[in-house]
Amino acid sequence: MSVERPVPVPNAETAPYWAAAREHRLTVQRCLECGQPRFYPRAICPRCGSDRTEWMDCEGTGTVYSYTVVYRPPSEAFAADVPYVVAVVELSEGPHLMTNVVGCPPDQVTVGMPVRVRFRDMGEELALPLFEPIGT
Amino acid sequence: MTNTPLPAAIVGIGESAVGRVPDRSALQLQTDAASVALADAGLRWGDVDGLITAPLRVEQSGLPCGVVANYMGLHPAYLSTLDLAGATGTAMIHHAALMVASGQCSTVLCVAGQNLLSHNSRAHAVKAMADHAGHAQFESPYGPLVPSLYALVAQRHMYEYGTTSEQLAEVAVTMRRHAGLNPNAHKRDPITVQDVLNSRMISSPLHVLDCSLVSDGAAAAIVTTIERARDLRRPPVRLLGQGYGQDHFHIGEAQSLTSTAAARSGREAFRAAGLTPADVDVAELYDCFTITVIVELEDLGFCPKGEGGRFVEGGRIAIGGELPTTTHGGLLSAGHPGVPGGLFHVLEGVRQIRGEAGDRQVPNAKIALVHGNGGTIAIHCTILLGGDTR
Prior knowledge:
The structure holds two protein chains of two kinds.
Chain A (H helix, E strand, L loop, with lengths): L14 H8 L4 E5 L5 E2 L14 E5 L3 E10 L13 E8 L4 E6 L12 E8 L5 E7 L3
Antiparallel strand pairs in A: 1-2, 1-3, 4-5, 4-7, 5-6, 7-8
Chain B lengths: L7 E8 L10 H16 L8 E4 L10 H9 L5 E4 L6 H15 L4 E9 L6 H12 L12 H16 L3 H15 L13 H6 L2 E3 L2 E2 L8 E10 H4 L7 E10 L15 H12 L8 E4 L4 H10 L8 H4 L18 H5 L6 H14 L12 E8 L4 E9 L3
Parallel strand pairs in B: 2-3, 2-4, 9-10
Antiparallel strand pairs in B: 1-7, 1-8, 4-7, 5-6, 8-11, 10-11
């Protein structure tokens, strides 16, 4: 069984997201036809079907939509991290995304908590967006 | 839309040994289940001219329908592999009914089974399921288990509606009580709400007893034309209606984690059958986690949104209660061999309609709802079953 931590492998559609993350910017796509921001990256707008798209920088703020504290790691790669928080954050721009909430004890995370993005550099090529409570 | 059911019926059902069955491969388990189903129907292998099967994720066999057809010596006039994850079992019955109704073939074997527990190790199965469930770039790097994905649903449901861990536990306790009445169930020892709350926390608020089992096992159902069904030995069970629904795929992008596309699949199944939730005598709901049952009860219209936690209290979903639910003990206690798990719910619906569920029979059960939920509460297929009322 592999104990490698899963690492994002960008493809043509997602490369702009990961390139921005490397520069510590959080970006999502926005439909140029209907204006709807979207995440995850994809070629067409799931609301209106348009393929006219731009990337927009996000404020990097949002609230915790839901969270869970993981006690039993999915693999050995995460064993040293438990307990850790997996959360869905609602960005100020609207889209939801999965992340880890860091920077506070897991038992202090609550639904609705305001959070801000911070990046964890994973080598030269990659940075992973994480979130921390605003005010820490 | 008319309320005329497709001219098809379920005429045979069977399951393999379920639980820890280390001496059987997935294909052997499927063959065991198919043999029982054929004997139940009074049919022979040579009568099968259609095959619908499900992914063999554990053994990673490509083209499962070809592998299964070849193994069993079938030379079907129709074959396919259906993959709606946990909704596969219910969708199989609809697809089989369509095939016999269209005349493409006359007798379809729906069969699915895996050795999820014994093929490698329980830990390996848990990791493999996690690898499959999360988005490779945008979820898996954050370390969610499959239970974490449903824990996010549970936590949000608690926040919005005040649902409690005790109410979640009530679902697990009920499933275990039902499994105690099922001789082929994987886990039959009774548990209490306190046992669930004291069990190991996996991904809060879900404890290990809020999560489905990891099991070996296979299930099979035979679907044929209604004309032929009426000449066979078992009372035909009709597909009265079906519906599908899907919205998000990955949990991270879902705009709501507490309202699911089960609302659509249920609404369409009831409309197709000309029935309402009040007509349902027994509900075989997909129960990969305790929270799943609570959300399905709401979205399928058995109680208002947000009331699911209170609905499961006081034995309301137990046999003898207002809405006997998942009466074989489900994925939480009867067995969970992965994707094939949802077919067991169909089999139980058939038993209840036939009146042969033994100690767990719901008296005078006329209408069974069976619901399958696939992926991370993403893909739904609801079917309604009833007797032959010509």
